[in-house]
Amino acid sequence: MTRYQHLATLLAQRIEQGLYRSGERLPSVRTLSAEHGVSISTVQQAYHLLEEKQLITPQPRSGYFVASRKATPPMPALTRPAQRPVEITQWDGVLELLDSRLEDDILQLGSGMPDLTQSTLKPLWKAFSRQAQKQETYLLNYDNLYGVVALREQIARLSIDSGCQLTAEDIVITTGCHEALSVSIRAVCEPGDIIAVESPSFHGIMQTLRGFGIRAIEIPTDSVSGISLEALELAFEQWPIKAVVVVPNCNNPLGFIMPENRKRALLALVQRFDAAVIEDDVYGELAWEYPRPSTIKSLDMDGRVLLCSSFSKTLAPGLRVGWVAPGRYRDRVLHMKYIVTGSTATQPQHAVADFIRQGHYLPHLRRMRQLYQRNYETFNCWVRHYFPCGICVSRPQGGFLMWVELPEAFDAVRLNRELRESHIQIAVGSLFSASGKYRNCLRLNYGLPLTDKTEQALVLVGKAIERAMATCAHETTQEQQIEILAAK
Hints:
alpha/beta; Arc Repressor Mutant, subunit A; Aspartate Aminotransferase, domain 2; 3 domains; eight-stranded mixed β-sheet; four-stranded antiparallel β-sheet; 15 helices; 16 strands
């Protein structure tokens, strides 16, 4: 982070904390220059950055002032799904979201795509180029079912940062994290079984359960502390739950990092009922805090945690390189993988292994963490500025996804149809529920390059939400009037 970015972040934090209030004049350029020991041009760049984020406004001959702002939207409250096993729906909506990724004229505000434009990915391209020049036959051949040894060794070394002590033999390479989750679910469950999931939860998990004929029981989830352990315990007492699927680090879609003590309590609870934990850590490397948060797998002493992840969010989804550390379920996971895909594509595994071994991966991670955090600060300002009052917004601690909750009567499905006419796509909240709940919510991606086009798209989304909320209020009033007349 440059000096002016560091100063801008410090000033933004002071504004957020209320140390500089709305409308208040900020210190002069010369004052800040002397106070922080930086050049006048550094202060001017910091102020310009804050101006771009609409946190401050310049006034000729008077200096800079804190911009008038709406109050910070509250965070979503503890979710309250129907706590009983249900059959999963919403496939048509998920398919529509996936298909829109291939439409170049659609701005993907709701996708789970990382930023692929950064220069720190160039060494990865060079790794592929070197492989093509060598024309080694083994790159076109099958590797073993476990995956390329060189890559598994690198993943084992990287896992130390999350508190795990893994070896190459503990890891199975998969075709992305999606396959890691899929084979893990099939390794611990049979058709007709029940799995507990966070609510809301990643739509890929939902559709995997649907495809395998497994029922889901949605557990209330808090946007700060994660899955409700009290509600989960009650569900265990009422239903024969085989496993719990969680995304405890940089959760998708809420963005929280589950506190360490709650991770321990979750594992203890699962041990008490002799179930499994399927842990999705695909966003864990993108946590803004350092060191990165630990995994539940790092606490696992009896092999009941299946840790799933990939390079899809940290590098590129098109690599399709993921992995699972399956613990006691290793043989079962290998069998399921053999049935579904067999061995994973060889060339991308070697390219990623080279990228890591040559020291490019960690610098890339640092850059992406800083980028996504800065993007969030700008994107959050835009949401607060352009969206109407009466909404709740999550406060992610990493990754690049944000959850927006609108009034209960709001229909985000209808909103998405309207936005598609303006070539804008959001992720509707109902996709993240087994039963189609959260129709009044949406997921947004702040990780993609923030351009003028992105800002104008949020302006359009905010106006569309405002119109829809006004319509909802009008329809509610009409219904109340009809009920009053009917009562008479």
